[in-house]
Amino acid sequence: MAVRLSTSTCIHERVRWGAEVFYTCEDSIRACAQAGYKILDINFATYSRGTLPMTQPDWEEWVKRTKETADALGIEWYQGHAHFYDWVAVDPADLDWHEELIRRSIIGAGIMGVKWLVIHPGTVRDETWYSYQKSLAANLEAFRRYGELAARHNVGIAIENMIESIVNRRYCSSVEELLELHAELDDPLFGICWDTGHAHLSKVDQSAALRQIGGRLKALHIDDNRGERDEHFAPYFGTIEWEPILDTLAEIGFDGCFTFEIHNFTNGLPDGLHAPCLRFTYELGTFMVDAIRQKQRG
Q1: How far apart are CA 210 and CA 207, in angstroms?
Q2: Is residue 19 predicted with pLDDT exceeding 90?
Q3: Could you tell me the end-to-end alpha-carbon distance of the chain, in angstroms, rounded to an integer?
Q4: Are 213 and 174 in contact (CB under 8 A)?
Q5: How far apart (Å, rounded) are the C-alpha atoms in residues 186 and 180?
Q6: Which of these, 21, 42, 208, 226, is most buried using a 10 Å CB contact count?
Q7: Full-model pTM
Q8: Contact 106, 82 (CB under 8 A)
Q9: Rounded mean pLDDT, 42-47
Q10: Mapping DSSP to helix (H, G, I), strand (E, B) and coil, where does residue 149 land?
Q11: CA distance 287 to 36
Q12: Does residue 236 carry a pLDDT above 80?
């Protein structure tokens, strides 16, 4: 199967940098479909905050209604994004609730028919600073637990690369750690999600990293930034050099979805500009996917 274009529902959530979600998930699905998208990424993380639908007692019914909306429009769900939280900063009293929201994300992905659910690895610190050994052990325990549930719901789990900085060491920012965790899990249920914006901030050679990941690459978060913050802009609006990445995706035979995670390209817009800008992202994505396909055809 050739690489295909998709986008996260987060592309159509907020207006004018508002803190509150302006559009419903159903609004987002319809807007993306109207722009031309036929494959979407369900962003459970957005709807797992505050009092939004994934936090409510009837969350499963909400997921089913969301699927019905998508089904009526002929939308396919290739990947999704689970709820996430900061392992270092979390209040221990809230830990069980955060894990419940991840559990709901996995079950929800099964209901939606999501093939790959992206889950963030966490970071563990010891009495000094960052602990590699404790981070590896804790992630193995967590992902094995997630995997048991995901297997029952026919969902694959894609582990995402994180952001490395001088002041904020995060586990799985390095390709070496990401590949080791994947290898230790030793189960085809698990794959890797590559976030281009995270890698750019970590100053990773993305082509070399993607070659190392190879066939373990199951999901993409395609986004751009200017090398200072995780801005989630559309490609070519930051400082990532895209052509080597497109060439490498073709080289390694990637045949999954080229998925935009570019909410900050649209979140600052007024409502009336969302539709034309969504259409532009579809055309931009089509251009990039076509470039990959042409390279794959030789």
Answers
A1: 5
A2: yes
A3: 16
A4: no
A5: 10
A6: 42
A7: 0.97
A8: yes
A9: 98
A10: helix
A11: 13
A12: yes
